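Work Package 3 committed the consortium to producing structural models of liganded targets before the mid-term review. Because experimental data for this complex are still outstanding, the team generated a predictive model from sequence and the ligand definition alone, so that downstream docking and mutagenesis planning could proceed in parallel. The input record is reproduced below exactly as it was submitted to the modelling pipeline, together with the SMILES string for flavin-adenine dinucleotide.
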Amino acid sequence: MKSLLFSFLFLFLFFLSHISASNSSIDTFLECLPSHSNPSHPISNSIYTPTNSSFLSVLQNYIRDSRFNTSTTPKPLAIVTALDVSHVQATVICAKTNGVKIRIRSGGHDFEGLSYISNVPFVILDMFNLRSIDVDIPSETAFIQAGATLGVCFTVGAGGHFSGGGYGNMLRQYGLSIDNIIDAEVIDANGRLLNRESMGEDLFWAIRGGGGASFGVILSWKINLVRVPEIVTVFNVQRTLAQGATDVVIQWQQVASTVDRKLFIRVQPETIQQGGSKTVQVTFIALYLGRASSLIPLMNKSFPLLGLQAQDCTEMPWINTTLFWNGNPTGTPLEVLLNRTSSRRPYYGKHKSDYVKTPIPRAGLETIWKKMIEVQLDNIVRMQWNPYGGRMSEIPEDATAFPQTLLILISFILKYELIELFISYQTLRFFLT
Ligand SMILES: Cc1cc2nc3c(=O)[nH]c(=O)nc-3n(C[C@H](O)[C@H](O)[C@H](O)COP(=O)(O)OP(=O)(O)OC[C@H]3O[C@@H](n4cnc5c(N)ncnc54)[C@H](O)[C@@H]3O)c2cc1C
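The resulting structure, written out as tokens with the ligand in place, is given here.
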């Protein structure tokens, strides 16, 4: 009993000392910031602590997954919403000297909330204000700051998306986002501003696909722009299991990575309710960098089982396809791309990526469908299968830090947080082993 009491007392004292240590570190961290930032851009305008009335809204603006937006989710001791490069440098230097952990956030789409939660006391360095995009048409290049948003999901941030690889629906024609990066600006752990030349090729290699936060703070990327035709074609066609989805997926596996590289067809199996019971519906979503008149014969020849018809296809300028891929109805004005906050709250998701190197046989597909249907409760289980091939097959595996092959993204859209545990242990383990 005595030893139990002693252990409890020890833990209590340890806890208290931990709190007071983190309180004093955060105080000295905050005091340190002005002396390391540019006086013409006062850093005081970008600091939010829990006593500030905007603290919670600043924190929550870029929390994209409601699993990590609860009263028990660990909160930062402060948020620095950098308005100037010197604010980034000051945050890094002052955090290092005061032993404060930094979480770096650009778009806030990290699957596990790693850009805004931590199990030790921490501050968030929020990059959303640093979001300029400078396009240079003559050289066909652009500088993109980390806080700019982009991607198939257009609220994903350039900071996390590019440093993690960045796949999009033109990857078969142009490779990943990182395959088009030619320079970057990074603040290192000593607060130094580096570019490709000063950081050296090793670090430049690592930040393209190896995750940015492991190496420094990405300020901006310089990328090569790619050309797209004035008009491109998209389609979104569904087949349920009863409509022969399994056969179509089998043929898709044979052609998706070898067909004309201008064509990208994503397969998206998900559970739906049909006639009072669950089944799997597979959506075939595609972008073709050309007109429908050349897509239809190409599909008839290479992928006849889908039975694509002219009326399934929609031609549009490439920029409008970003809305199509995001699921916005046809005719949605492009201005919604300027909306940086998520419209789908509350949203509970669990995502996991994996790779498939050889086609999944029919029996394997059928087992996957069965497992998807078996998942209980009201949650949606969705998988996204993104084919590579084309340009992706030409890029050496070690050109960047990103691993290459056919990518499968499994995602669970959850209604209740608890379901995640069930899925993680029962279903994910099945899918990923
Ligand atoms: C709904 C959804 C759709 C998605 N769609 C796609 C897709 O189509 N293609 C694709 O490739 N990926 C996609 N992703 C994955 C997404 O690209 C990654 O999760 C990416 O890391 C998110 O970047 P972010 O800046 O929005 O996230 P954040 O949560 O801000 O950051 C993600 C990670 O990068 C680090 N980081 C962020 N900014 C910086 C910086 N400036 N310097 C250093 N480190 C930084 C963070 O600390 C964190 O570890 C999707 C994710 C979701 C949730």
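Reviewers should note the following from the model. The longest strand covers residues 263-274. These observations will guide the Year 2 experiments.
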